[in-house]
Amino acid sequence: MDDTDASALVHAALQHDDEAARALVRQLYPLVAKIVRAHRPHRTDEEDLCQMIFIKVFQKLSQFSGKVPLEHWVSRIAVNTCLNQIQWEKIRPELRHADLSVEEQAVIENLKTSADELAPDQRFASRQLVEHLLAALKPVERLAIDLLYLQGRSVEEIRKITGWSAALVKVRAFRARQKMKECLARISAKEGV
Q: pLDDT tens digit string along 125-182?
């Protein structure tokens, strides 16, 4: 896109010219789509991310100075939006039913339908399921669950190891259990769909 054409389209779009805004999207879409394909996080749809980028571009269009080519300015917004989305997904990991093995899915089905003890052949799968659920927690929550429930340490021992207060140990363990239950409930609900 020629710099004078870009400046004219930007100026017209800032004056609420819908046709100029559509022309900007048509001109810039291949560039944005290419960046999104290169940097798209796993859980975010390509089209959704492109729309997020164009929303940001139009929200910040008045900040475009024209000192750099429009494509460079839009590229920077696109890359930063993709990186922010990747970071957001990393902070909030999601476990899906499809991510589980057949054995882990059987454990969930057994948990939903029966209060009986797990069969010996399901114990390994249940351990794998617990590891998936733990991976969705923050590191301090994982540590609290590991020390308290998997290693069987007392609150007092955990307090000495971590330096946390007894109340903090209990609160972190409680919150971590709640998050694990919610994650398991979401997986179970998605299975029924």
A: 677 777 778 777 888 888 888 888 888 889 998 888 888 899 999 999 999 888 888 8
| Domain annotation for the chain: domains and CATH numbers | 3-91 (1.10.1740.10), 97-192 (1.10.10.10)
Nearest in space to 103 (alpha carbons), one of 65, 130, 143: 130
Q: Which pairs count as long-range contacts for 16-23, CB under 8 Å and 24+ apart, including other chains?
A: 21/58
For residue 134, give the nearest of 121, 147, 152 by alpha carbon.
147
Stretch 6-21: mean pLDDT: 87
